[in-house]
Specification:
Length: 71
């Protein structure tokens, strides 16, 4: 990612929303020369990955609510 990746396929998801979002932001960084494709995720039903994905969505929702409460 430091030198110009343009595609990302996640085979597993991190528990940390910060780590998840950091990868996305590195793809959308200033100076990116190639068109980029963000995050294709492989998540099978009824697995730990399903719970991780739901937790990340919940964390993002909570974080957005906390930071936008004054708006």
């Amino acid at each position: 990612l430091q030198f110009g990746g343009s595609k990302l396929v996640r085979c597993s998801l991190p528990w940390s929303l910060d780590w998840y979002e950091q990868v996305v932001l590195r793809f959308a960084r200033e100076g990116q020369k190639a068109p980029y494709t963000l995050s294709h995720e492989t998540v099978a039903k009824n697995t730990v990955e399903t719970r991780v994905q739901a937790a990340l969505v919940g964390k993002a929702f909570t974080q957005d609510a906390v930071f936008s409460w004054r708006s």
